[in-house]
Amino acid sequence: MDNNAKHHEEFILGTEDWVQAARIAKKCSGFVCDDEDEMVADETVSCYNCRYRRWAAHSISCHRPGRSSHDQ
Amino acid sequence: MRVLVCIDDTDNLDSKGTGEIAEAIAKGIEKQGWGKSYGITRHQLLVHPDIPYTSHNSAMCFPVMTTELHLQDIISYAQDLLEQECAEGSDPGLCVCVPQLLSNQSLLTDFGYTAKQFVLTKDEAYDLAARLNIHLSEHGGTGQGVIGALAGAGLRLGGNDGRFKGKLKIDTPDNTIRVGDILSNYPVDLVQSLDGQVLNKSEVIRLGEKVKKVLLRDKSVVLVYRDKAENGAPCWKTCTKQQLRVY
Fold first, then answer.
1. Which end of chain B has fewer CB atoms within 10 angstroms, the N or the C?
2. Angstrom distances, CA of residue A41 to CA of A22, A29, B41, B210, B243
């Protein structure tokens, strides 16, 4: 499925900012765990483990339903 | 004979994952009595702005031991299930190949590794599948999933890529286990360190929260790393999810 929509801003987290990704996810009401096989962060509640994150080469973007572009 | 079944691009952000659909196909094949399936592996492909993928661009592949008699049954069953289960907006692809019949296995493996580094096209996938007489079919949307499906089969065939779906459920009172006990009681071929040292059966390892296997040298491998126990003594621990993400 093509989710390359431009309005989904990339996080500035990069692909290995484990602490920050956990901190953001803990405050996020839209966090939903992805399948266990797609989880890469040891901290379960992490943007890196969320089913609404989308991986790019150097970071992830948030595709949470209803998310606004200022809401990271 | 050994058959590889691989699927890609079956999901959207809210649907069943591709792994779940692969599992349903594998179980269905067994239920029909067409063969025995083995562990499903997840193969990471390139993430790139020119590639349409849902969230991570990975393909799921599993081998089936079957007979020539059931090959077409397996293909038809997988096609039907993909068409029933695939999510709106997905671009599913199916690859079914018989490694022993391939005239050149390394062409397929090379395609898999190329798909981890470069953007490939459907035409390239179909050309290779036709050349090697591999079943490759698309089941909705743009059908772009054929690229990942063929690549995933190649990576599985290569035997050195991917994590196995699911985790090992090992329950011990003190959260440790001997390597020999893992090898005897669980579907694991080897326990080895991240730098390639194969542990002998008498070694003891500490179990992390989730124990997963990876595919290396065509074997199911539990990876461990050197750490320190509470008393400061060196010990082996199973790798964390963060350590396994590169597999």
1. N
2. 9, 19, 19, 12, 9
